[in-house]
């Protein structure tokens, strides 16, 4: 078992060369960068003498647990990708940590980062997850990172839902390729809140096959400059914005017309065919037509009035002045009611 400790540092050829004749303790106190990547390290031992350490490279090892780093209060960059780490833990004392690389481990939940108020980049891509599982996010950690995190890399983690990430309002770069994201409406909601986002990659997600996917994202993210590895042309963006504004304006005008039109009519029939206004002379014309329409012929060949026909002579002069046409629904669609009807099917008084 290879352990990272003071003795391992002392035996390292590069540090022997850099230290020369300087005492080991004094040398370790001044050490700011430590690179022990790809050394088959399984455990991190006591490094408390390296108090000025700012950058630690431990990627491509066999580390199973993050531990013994509480001394490193000045650490800003920590590289732990491609190890066997299962939990994010023991990092609360790293108050100056700004970049954390954890890709290619066995982490199932993004957690344990509360209190890291200066963390700007979190890379946790391609975790070796159990079959059928996806990377999860602890709400407490997301809330803690909401004001500081600007670069978030979660590619290739089986993720199908990122609505929890809307709280990360300062995201400028988001990498979510090779996941299972498919809800375009959800993305619109999230990205409309990420007002600083300028670079995003969702390549090889199901949502990329949705109609108007790229156009929708470009119109939603006003500050986006690069989408799925392709630059966004400002001319294209302006064209899409103008098209969207025109479409919304037309819809608004149409809605206003629909809202205002029914209020001008007293009933649905009037809304469809309009309010009829029949002058008295036209009413008289209708009555004349009713009286003169073809009638049935009796046995003697004498024209007989059709049943139900109205005889104008039965109407007194005073009553005629008060007649009105009460059933406008019999008017033919598109026919001007101010003109005499071409066909009379029924007359009602």
From TrEMBL:
InterPro entries: Leu-rich_rpt (IPR001611), LRR_dom_sf (IPR032675), SDS22/Internalin_LRR (IPR050836). This is Protein phosphatase 1 regulatory subunit 42 isoform X1. The keyword Repeat applies. It comes from the Eukaryota. Keywords: Leucine-rich repeat, Repeat. CDD domains: PPP1R42. Signal peptide: none annotated. Pfam families: LRR_8, LRR_9. The keyword Repeat applies. Gene3D superfamilies: Ribonuclease Inhibitor (3.80.10.10).
């Amino acid at each position: 078992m290879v352990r990272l400790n003071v003795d391992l540092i002392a035996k390292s050829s590069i540090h022997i060369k850099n230290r020369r004749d300087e005492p080991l303790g004094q040398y370790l106190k001044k050490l700011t960068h430590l690179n022990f990547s790809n050394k088959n390290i399984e455990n991190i031992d006591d490094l408390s003498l390296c108090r000025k350490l700012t950058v630690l490279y431990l990627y491509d090892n066999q580390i199973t647990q993050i531990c013994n780093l509480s001394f490193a209060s000045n650490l800003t960059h920590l590289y732990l990708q491609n190890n066997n780490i299962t939990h994010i833990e023991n990092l609360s004392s790293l108050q100056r940590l700004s970049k954390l690389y954890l890709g290619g481990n066995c982490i199932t939940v993004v957690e344990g980062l509360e209190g890291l108020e200066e963390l700007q980049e979190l890379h946790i891509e391609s975790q070796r997850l159990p079959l059928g599982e996806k990377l999860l996010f602890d709400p407490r950690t997301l809330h803690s990172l909401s004001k500081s995190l600007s670069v978030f890399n979660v590619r290739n983690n089986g993720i199908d839902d990122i609505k929890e990430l809307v709280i990360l309002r300062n995201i400028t770069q988001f990498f979510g390729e090779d996941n299972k994201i498919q809800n375009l409406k959800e993305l619109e909601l999230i990205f409309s809140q990420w007002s600083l986002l300028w670079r995003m990659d969702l390549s090889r997600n199901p949502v990329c096959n949705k109609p108007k996917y790229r156009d929708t994202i470009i119109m939603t993210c006003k500050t986006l400059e690069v989408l799925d590895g392709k630059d966004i042309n400002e001319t294209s963006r302006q064209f899409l914005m103008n098209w969207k504004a025109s479409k919304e304006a037309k819809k608004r005008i149409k809605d206003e017309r629909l809202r205002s039109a029914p209020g001008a009519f007293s009933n649905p029939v009037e809304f469809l065919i309009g309010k009829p206004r029949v002058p008295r002379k036209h009413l008289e014309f209708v009555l004349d037509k009713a009286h003169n329409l073809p009638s049935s012929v009796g046995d003697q060949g004498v024209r007989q009035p059709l049943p139900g026909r109205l005889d104008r002579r039965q109407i007194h002069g005073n009553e005629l002045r008060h007649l009105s046409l009460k059933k406008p629904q019999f008017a033919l669609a598109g026919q001007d009611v101010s003109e005499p009807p071409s066909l009379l099917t029924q007359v009602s008084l």
